[in-house]
Design goal:
Elements (H helix, E strand, L loop, with lengths): L22 E11 L1 H12 L2 H5 L3 E6 L10 E2 L5 E2 L23 E5 L1 E2 L2 E2 L2 E10 L3 E10 L3 E11 L5 E12 L7 H19 L8
Antiparallel strand pairs: 1-11, 2-5, 3-4, 5-8, 6-7, 8-9, 9-10, 10-11
Length: about 210
């Protein structure tokens, strides 16, 4: 990874105390209700739908080389916990692209509102629970910013509602992006595209 605060998107106080020199962001949207909506959103998330719909081309998606890598796990307070040693069978989409899995590396290429979004990334952790599906994606290098994104779909037991949450922090790397408003503009557009990808309520063309 090209940043120190690995896993910080799961810290409860991310918005108040982001990693040094980084700009935090967080959005949550209600995207429906019920188990069917939850499962559909989770499958879309783990098959890279959000990234593709954001206009990013996925290149060289590589699962972890062996079963030993299980990723970093976090409790409800954002503290690291012992990894789950069980390993699941690698899944693939209709085009043969591996689903999201801990340790997967990939390169993305594209532009967001005319701004470059090329990067090398790694999946830090994956959550597949009865009422939560998500993953954390961090930069390895080659990006205009360094940092992390977490994507979570939650099926809330008390209300039956399904919520999609994206959290991120970006530290500018390229000289141009050291202007905070450009980093925030890039992030806002990415969040909007992720929402359109995962939510049927906002299913409009990118």
């Amino acid at each position: 990874m090209d940043y120190a605060a690995v896993g910080a998107t799961h810290a409860p106080d991310l918005m108040q105390y982001p990693p040094e020199r980084s700009i935090p962001a967080e959005e949550s949207w209600r995207i429906g209700s019920g188990e069917e909506r939850f499962r559909a959103a989770g499958d879309a998330l783990l098959s890279w739908t959000a990234q593709r719909a954001a206009g990013l081309e996925l290149i060289d998606v590589r699962p972890a080389s062996g079963p030993a890598y299980t990723g970093v796990s976090f409790d409800a307070e954002g503290a690291p916990i012992a990894p789950n040693r069980s390993t699941a069978e690698q899944r693939y989409d209709a085009e043969g692209t591996p689903f999201v899995a801990p340790g997967t590396t990939l390169k993305v290429r594209g532009r967001v509102k005319g701004m470059r979004a090329d990067a090398e990334l790694r999946v830090i952790s994956v959550t597949e629970e009865r009422r939560r599906i998500g993953f954390v994606l961090g930069t390895v290098g080659g990006s205009v910013v360094s940092g992390e994104e977490s994507f979570d779909v939650d099926w809330r037991e008390d209300t039956d509602e399904v919520w999609f949450t994206v959290r991120a922090f970006d530290a500018p790397v390229a000289m141009l992006y050291r202007l905070p408003w450009l980093v925030k503009r890039r992030r806002r557009e990415l969040f909007a595209r992720y929402l359109r990808a995962i939510s049927p309520l906002f299913a409009t063309p990118v």
